[in-house]
Amino acid sequence: MAHMIxxxxxxxxxxxxxxxxxxxxxxxxxxxxxxxxxSSINPDNIWHLNNIFLEDPDGNKERIAIKHxxxxxxxxxxxxxxxxxxxxxxxxFEMLDDFCAKVESSYNSISLLKQASQKxxxxxxxxxxxDYINFKYKNVLKKKPQFTNGIGKKLNKVLxxxxxxxxxxxxxxxxxxxxLFNNHSNLSEEDIELFTSDLSAKLAxxxxxxxIRTNKVIKEIHLTDLKDNxxxxxxxxxxxxxxxxxxxxxGDFRKIEDVFQELTARVSQEPILHEExxxxxxxxxxxxxxxxxLIEEIKQLNN
Length: 303
Description:
By secondary structure, this protein is an alpha+beta fold. It folds into two domains: 7-137; 157-301, 2-Layer Sandwich (Beta-Lactamase), CATH 3.30.450. It is 38% helix and 27% strand. The protein has seven helices and ten strands. It has a ten-stranded antiparallel β-sheet with strand order 2-1-5-4-3-8-9-10-6-7, with helices on both faces. A hairpin with a 5-residue loop joins β4 and β5 (76-83). α1 (25-41) runs antiparallel to α5 (189-214), α2 (90-106) runs antiparallel to α4 (121-137) and α6 (253-267) packs antiparallel against α7 (288-301).
């Protein structure tokens, strides 16, 4: 069961440099697969990872709060804290800033940090920082998420929706080609199809690795789009008898989550999703209608 603060980690690109609690190493590994996803669709580094929400079979929740730093060499550096606390509170942001500042005061360049991480004393040094951060914040973090409406009305938009099984995409629907950040010219149908296929595979890989490595399901991934007025980007996962409903949207998290939960409940009534996937995609084609109808429901939220 998760405590208020369970562990800290430092991750650079595809390498975990430091973990304070080995019991949560596998949970921090999920960030490596999320990093591959955002790197592939976000070459200009305008998406920043904020937090990840996991849940075990007993319903115990685990959240990873993340400070995402883009280095001078355009590498992804993540300062992470895991536990069961409100990842959106000011106290959490202060804790992550404090953790980052303390580490960078000792290692003021990425090359220094990488070199030091290979030495045995590195963990002892960061452990001292972690002990300080843990003592300072463990009694001030908030338990319950405090979602706010923010300033102004948020435009709600579905970017992608799909269904997968055991890491294999079954249905993939791209609803907003702005996800193809690296394509500035006219997009062909083949460009969109290849991108959508790659995106659905990476989303399914995240799901499978969460289950295999942690025995937990990944429920939410929250990002910020720096290009679009710090808009919230949300990746949601729903689980139906071994199938995964994968969903990317932007806007008001609470409203989008409500619509997503309703969609998951409706789709779960489909008999085909109560049968084992045998590799034939034809029996699933009609499920696209659910995803297309979802677009209209999200549009209604903007009225």
